[in-house]
User: Fold these one by one.
Assistant:
Number 1:
Amino acid sequence: MNTETIVFALASALAIVFSLVMLFQRKPVKSVLSLVVTFFGLAILSVLLAAPFIAALQVIVYAGAILVLFLFVIMLLNLEQEAADKETRKIHFYLGILAVLGLGGLVTGLTLRAGNPPVPVGNGPFLIPAKDEIPLLGKVLFTDYLLAFEALSVLLLLAAVGALILSKRRFE
Amino acid sequence: MSPELFNVAAAGAKIAFVWGVVLAALLPMLIWAERRVAAFIQDRPGPNRVGPLGLFQSLADAIKFFMKEDVTPTYADRFLFNLAPWITLVPAITTFAIIPFGSSLPVTLGGQTYDVPLIIADVNVGVLYMFALTSIGIYGIVLAGYTSNDKFSLLGGIRSSAQIISYELAMGISAIGVFMTAGSLRLPEVVAYQQQHIWNVVPQILGAVIFIISAFAETNRLPFDLPEAEAELVAGYHTEYSAFKFAMFFMGEYANMVAASALIVTLYFGGWSLPGIAFTGVAGALLSIAVFAAKTGLFIFIFLWVRWTLPRFRYDQLMDLGWKVFLPLSVLNLLYVAILVAAGKA
Amino acid sequence: MNAVEPMAVAPAAYLTVGTLLFFIGMAGALLKRNALSIFLSIELMMNAANLLLLTYARMRGDISGQVIVFFVIAIAAAEASIGLAMFVALFRARSTVDVDKINLLKW
């Protein structure tokens, strides 16, 4: 029982518990906050998986920017909680639960039964170095994945412009 | 004593030292210093009744904060309303973990000499940790504004968080120049680079200016404190908070100021090093801590000085400055530093 | 921990956690009526997939997995901004974000 196992257990418990809280929460603000805690747990798991840069990125971008954007929209639109009546949706509700439990149980069971998948070790230039993986990540991003990187920047520009246009008020 | 146990004990000692110095000693002194500096600039005496030179004023303030009645607005969501100050305070006091406050201290324990680096957590993502914590701190402000169920709080909260997000960009991009020259995100490497070459403020003066001004905006200090200005928004996002919760916001703001000063000093002004002096041994370590404290204290004084000298920006002027002036300038700075690095390597 | 030593926790554990989170997100996407809650659940699903990618990257010692996760996070940011702008426009048109009430195209 070394520290890594304990940290893994705590982080995954945190992530799963708070994602369930998010699922059962009625108020949108509280579900966003539960998701923030879930992403924190996932960031801790990313650190355990030798990806501290991705963990920092998850907290900065996902938990710190995207979910803040969600909060802003919730505050701007002043959304109240979901309506209490589920009359027209009862059959859909039960079918949905059945689908999720069935498929989820099946896939989770298969994953558990499969154990550790046999994967070949990666090739030379992409091997994660022992001490610090950030220089290699930067180098790979700007050499081997350059096209995807540039396309991503264009995509982000499009998203920014598109969001501005979509949410503009039309003054008639 | 096994090395692992020693590392844990050393980390605990460093945390106790940093929190003890910063929280217990520096913050009360800072509150007193702010009021004395303000008084000096405004040509009036300032607090001078409680203790010699008014030094125990902070103690009186602390007692007042504990004794005041704790008021919660009627329709506020109680859990989130009480949680918001914690979300603001905890990131503010945890950002000190990655800042190197001295060179390494050799400790001899049981015949074996360990070299303790004077930084609490030398993670290899370095300053990204601080940006992550700033992003989390935004939640405290947004929640405080929203859950107070009060128009002024909501406006103050939204304005403040939008301001922080906008200036975070310019701050991050201008800091990239420092990391490009140092070759790493870790702050001890940045300090080592400045020890061997020159303080980063000299070749990257534009980046330094942008970073310092963005740090003012990040900590909600004048001239960027419209979200909490008295004349405009009562008290912005902490209007409805009283007693201990207000004290937490208050402390969080000052802790943010200290952390921002420490980061400016480390990134641009050489951190704990001075040009030409080698800091070795115990004496060197203590000297480096003193140098770091002096530089950080200077920048804290500049924060205080600017607050009582300049008028505040209007909100649209503030956002214009962040997006239309600082962001393009920081990208220009990045380009300039990239050319320097490429020319230097070639 | 660095990437050249064998993993202390079995990869199957990480894969199970990721799968579990994915299906919790799927439950949210299927069962909720508030459009923003559905969107939050979709973000959770994406993050669970990120966890799986990182696990495989760690097992292979290959950094490409981390690069893919980097791209997925950035794309999620772009998609979230567009999606939320659409929700804002939708709310302005129909005064609700309840997906059951957005039914103009229903036969």
Note: The longest helix of chain C spans residues 64-94.
Number 2:
Amino acid sequence: MKEQLPALIVIVPLLIALLSPLVAYFSTRLLRGLGLTAAAVSFVSAVGALGHALTKGPWHYYFGNWAPPWGIEYVIDPLSGLMAVLVSFLSLVVLIYTDSFLREEGWLKQGIHYALYLLLTAGLLGMTVTGDVFNLYVFLEISSLSAYGLIASGGYKATVSAFRYVLVGTVGASFYLLGVGYLYAITGSLNMADLTVRLQPLLDSQAVLIAMVLILVGMGIKMALFPLHGWLPDAYTYSPPAAIPFIAGVMTKVMAYVLLRYFFFIFGVLNGFVPLVLEVVGWIAALGIILASVMAIAQSDFRRMLAFSSVAQVGYIGLGLSLGNMFGFIGAVFHIINHAIMKCCLFLVAGGVKWKTGEHLIEKYAEMSRRMPLTMGAFLLGAFSMVGIPPTAGFFSKWYLILGAIEKDLWIYVVVIILSSLLNAIYFFRVIEQAYLKKAPVAEREKFVEDKKPELPATMLVPIVVLGACILVVGILNEPLVSNILLMAFPGGGL
Amino acid sequence: MKFVRAGALLVVVVMTVVLFIGAGALPAIYNPQSPASTHVSDRYIEKSVEETGSLNFVTAVLADYRGYDTLGETTVIFTAGLAAVVLLRSAQKADSRGKKVPLAKAGKGMSERFGTIVLNTAARFVIPFVTLYGVYVLVGGGEGNPGGGFQSGAVLAIAIIISRLVYGEGAAFNISGDLALILAGIGTFIYAFVGVLTLLWGGNFLEYGIAPFLMSAAEKHSLGISGIEIGVTLCVMATIIAIFDALARKEEVS
Amino acid sequence: MSMEFLLAYRPLWAILISLVAAALIMLTGDKRPNLRETWTIVAAVGKMLIVFSMLPLVLAGGVIEIEPFKIARGVSLHLRADAAGMVFAVLASFLWVVTSFYSIGYMRKLQEEHQTGYFACFAVCLSATMGIAFAANLLTFFVFYEILTIATYPLVVHHRDQESIKAGRKYLAYTLIAGQLFLVGILWVQFLVGHGDFQPGGFLAGKASVGALQTIFLLMTLGTAVKAGVMPVHGWLPSAMVAPTPVSALLHAVAVVKAGAFGIVRIVGYVFGPQLLAQLGVAQILAWFAAFTIIVSSLIAMAQDNLKKRLAFSTIGQLSYVVLGAALLTPLGIMGGIFHIVAHAVMKITLFFCAGAIFATTQLTRVSELNGIGREMPYTMGAFTVGAVGITGLPFIVGFISKWNLALGSLQGGQGVYVGVLLLSSLLSAAYFLPIVYAAFFKKSEPQVAKHHCGEANKMMLIPLLITAAVSIVLGVFPNAGGGLYDLAAMSAQSIVSGQFMVGGW
């Protein structure tokens, strides 16, 4: 079975997802156990595959044993392996967390939730490890549809925002498909490695430019790159707390990864129209970073603030993509990792606070640090990371991104990154002030002085604390991560 | 509002122009020398019969060479069903907020509402034949004849939908919405399970040729393809019924 | 764990010991205050011992250097106990011991809230201070610099009222913006040179165009000048006086502001170097700002009635002595500046301790209310007098020594005008401090104020301030007493000027 690791990463969650309604009918406890096992197996397989990719080179796995470009293959190289590890890890962590939210629900609701959640996991994992551009689209569909379903299960407002997400997201996916169609028409191939070779002589053609732009816009919509982010604030705010940490943490990052894969690997950053396209991406990303950060300051709902913050952070990744050099690449990938962990942790905190106190408005967070010390402690780490205070992980993404910008003499980007750090400080410290410094109204205080119970059930608290610790650990250990994995992921094998 | 509309119109116009220009840059569809016609297609056209045992090379590509994609698409159908059910049930609960109407259990069929004998009689004749045809499409189709799992699933679903429409929720020939969802998952699982079997037999996922039966390679592939088609049928049928059921409930409440 | 390993990693242990203490303090909580306070004292004494144990080696001309791990691609977390770093570290670790006892006395007398958080944050701040002292490259320095910013914030907003929160916001705004500017400078250097390792005499010569180097200097000094309270970016300091007095004492007279001043010394001496700065011509401008700050802050101090605010502006002026010393680019100037880090710290902490003792005992905060307090609190006001006279620069108290070196340093560099600045500053300091001393001892107290008088301050507060006052006098007569700090300052200046780590002073 060990040779089948690449397939197992995706297949195991998929299989369990398909059986979820059936299993839920008989026993929801069995369902929980199977779901967690599936996520765990997927994670272990991803780690194993990454290890193989780092030591023995990229792993090619042929489905049906048909060689590409006639068949579909999975390719685990350091970049895709790393993404797979990240996605499966967060999937597992959030799945542990959702236990408390689902316990009370009926069998069908639980069955559907686990099915959609594991399908989302399988879909995103499929997108990261595939080596076939159409297979990517198929799994993009799977992950998108399951995300729509998960978001819609959050109540009335959620259904409405999910519906808008459905419309906009489908348009985005269609653009991507159209772009793939163009690429197929001019090269006859759907395999990434094959495309890279076949596109070389064609990179100056109009068709490739249009394909590039279509794919960029399509994935830009899905990753909420400004100004295509309109669907995100509502979707993130009203989404059920059981699902949103995973969605917010990982979905947009995988879409960003797709763009990295296309521009750095398939098209190649120095060729043809690519530098021009990337320059445009850079301006848009820079603008988005500033505007989204400003919007975040204006929010009174904690989750909505996090949503706009996500748009800004995606801008950083876009900026790294547009730089096109090694530091830009490292900065972008490192920020994918950081932001996934940070945002997931922050939404876990938001969900925890909502579960314990029912509050989601910032002004109601007064004295939250007393009631939920560990939870808000994790929030502190997340906040520091977003602002970019060393030695948290967020600081180091900015370190690499600014180095990349200086290397390309793009000082305006340096200013943008610095300015956005300060803007982030404004809205995060506002929450810190509320939670740590302000006094709650007397009536509220009575309630929580009495409460002797632990701040959150262990299944919710452990994920929060673990992710908070990861923020610090990834920051302090960023050098081994960069030198041993990220540099190897860079096309050309790094320096 | 006017700005938004004008902006949207502008975007549409620009996109149309761009796509027309782009289409011109693509090689002509009928061109036998185009990359799409010469790169991978040759093998599919020439070798598919001997390699996959399928007389139809579209089926060969869909169900064998790129069978993994089709598993993905089947999963998409299942997922769409789940998502649609979630969306419709949420909307349904939203509609009935405040009203004390129980979520509909008493779905009245058309014959109860309109009370004609024509519907009953016609249904009694049509339903069995449609069902039979659906099964035929699955079993007899796909190889040399039109058909296959997706089509079969749709036809079978139609049979059940006719029954539901005419006789209402109490219809004998019916699958409840909840059961439909379970079946949809099982159907897709059957498809995936074929792949799991190939893994257990030592090959790659969906490597039909690894089956340890005493058959020729082409026959093993045929068997594999048949297996996955059954899964697809079940999934498609059940998903359509599940969505129909969710829609029907929504109708009945409002 | 071999003995060698333990000895070699002392800079790291110095940093870590108080981090561990912070965790222990948080775990102990409010339930057992004595145990909690024990952690602080154990960590403070331990830290002091570790730092002092490194003195012999460094005084002999060696350095203790470690690179435990890499902190970013191509950059390691690099710690080095060299002469300049040891000056700062010895100072901070010794004063933390003293301040810890004082804090305990102060907080308990006033029955303050949130003591656990207070002591824990204090411990983290001292960790960061050690990190700043021992940092051997720009990124390591920056990491601890920012940690210090964040760890001091809870201390500034300790009282959690409107005024404190506002002060906290101001503090963050100033320091975070400054930090970001500093970061840009650091990254630029990293890009140009590939590393940020501190080298005595600097390492940037010839690495970039004049314009680029000038901009980098501007960014870096702006970044550190904010913490060092150079005008016009000093605004956060007076507002931060809303914090409890031990915080103002240690952090805003010793750790935070000295970190800024120390940063300027590192930038001038170990990143750019005197020769390069002379070529670039930017040190002059820094010297002007320092001189401006020295004079203007003294003038503003004279107008302050709130005692702590007066001390704050005095601090602002005194810090610019260090900046001026560095900006003079001469050996004696640099040495005077570095030694003033020590001199001002012990004198100012004494003054703040006295202010806090007065407040804790009598609730009085205004200079105008201090008439006659000398008779009620003779020891406290005695120590205050020592501190005040020292700031003025009269001989036999440590302030004189650094002033003397600074004056010689400006003459050495042919910039005699700064001697005038120093003289004027002495006069102004006398003008804003001596009246207090006079009023305390020789004026009669107002009746309504006399109600507050309750005798001398309690022992926990009194003993520390007497110790620091005594240290001010001892160092004034024997500048090398205790830690050879005078020699260390000289060594550091020598190494900066000559471009290599050096032994011996003169």
Note: Strands of chain A lie at 59-62, 73-76.
